[in-house]
Amino acid sequence: MMSNLALQEIFQAALARVDPYRMMAEHLRLEGDTLVIDFDGLRQEIALGGRKILVLGAGKASAPMARAVEDLLGDRIKEGLISVKYGHTEPLRRIKLIEAGHPNPDGAGEAAARRIAAMAAQAGSDTLIINLISGGGSALLPLPFTSDDPALGIALTLADKQEVTKGLLASGADIGEINCVRKHLSALKGGRLLRLMAPAESLNFILSDVVGDRLDIIASGLTSPDRSNFADALAILQHYQLSDKVSPQVMRLLDLGCQGKIQETPKPGDPVAAYARNFLIGSNRAALLAACGKARGLGYHTVALTSSMTGEAREVAKLLFGIAKDVQDSALLVARPACIIAGGETVVTLRGGGKGGRNQEMALAFLVEMAKDESDGPPIDFLAASTDGSDGPTDAAGAFASSILLKRAKAQGLSPHVFLAENNSYAFFAAIEGLLKTGPTRTNVCDLQIITVGTPLQPC
Length: 460
What we know:
Elements: H1 2-17, H2 20-27, E1 28-31, E2 34-39, E3 42-47, E4 52-58, H3 62-73, E5 77-85, E6 95-100, H4 107-122, E7 127-133, H5 137-140, H6 158-171, H7 175-183, H8 192-197, E8 201-207, H9 230-239, H10 248-258, E9 276-282, H11 284-297, E10 301-304, H12 313-330, E11 338-344, H13 358-372, E12 380-386, E13 398-401, H14 403-411, H15 416-421, H16 425-431, E14 435-436, E15 447-453
Parallel strand pairs: 4-5, 4-7, 5-6, 7-8, 8-9, 10-11
Antiparallel strand pairs: 1-2, 2-3, 11-15, 12-13, 12-15, 13-14
Helix pairs in contact: 1-11, 2-3, 6-7, 7-9, 9-10, 12-13, 13-16
């Protein structure tokens, strides 16, 4: 389908803009014994001298970031370790790589977290730590909290954290809420890694996968002071009615934290933050703008809606279809042929026992809306996809919606509404060949939703 090809070209242009290796290589360089960092026109110089260089990190995009650092610094790197999602690897020479579970943490991730914690704690003032952090870093570094005071008897297990993560993911909680809870159950997150690293200086390169690009939320804020507290984490579990569905140890930890008997995460102004410098190297907004540029080049009149789209995936689909219909009927918002692009990260509240992800669910809900509409007009085509190449627990990045796919579904007797009710978007799109499979992209800046209305005859 030619329309699908256009949507894929636009999506691929967005991925190319936020390629982690490219972003690191373009903004870091060596000038003699000085590391020069130039992001957003702000130049910083770090004298390397005889300092030990330690490279640490976690996330779906951290492997290509590590390769860029190795290519730049080579033998200057004393040692390093990063934790990545299974399959999201790169060939590295000096930096060790551990593959681990995401979105649910596993034992490999816990082992990586313990090694990284030990390496950070051993670093002294003669060490420069380079942290490479991207989306997924929270699940990939699951180090359960253990109290320093044995009298409190708090020693969480990985199973405790897995249970909490699974419950929050199924509840419809957004990434900020999930990471708020994770911070307060972790020995590393919420800025606790800052305490371990001090007095070593750290340079922290961060690729954003959260709406708003808040550094204290990305990967649960490993190297950023935390604005949330134990009371916030407890309120989130209560709001989603998970208090009696998680380990009693989890609830006791949060209760003790609320009482001030367990030290809070570092807050803004904490002295340990002075040793760290954070650099945001990429975001959904950058990908969105690149997608718009490609769409214009293909001949579409283009509009960017937002890079901060949130909410239930199926409800967002209704909004986007309504916009598409306005453009189809009267060219409201933008002239035809049109391309409308949004970005952000939605959620899914599980109601059925099917398989899918938030982007596949959104595409299926979009198709449900299309099935209700029998009017003619310029064709509407839609793609919702995750920039990391894996949408939920599937091997698809997302899915398409179009009149052609709707006809295929009808020919096979498949009801989009029935599959949506079961959260079974993957099986539906697999049956009608509507999935987008990119494989691991080794980047991660949330999701993109791309709508085209009409087909360009030639570039505008």
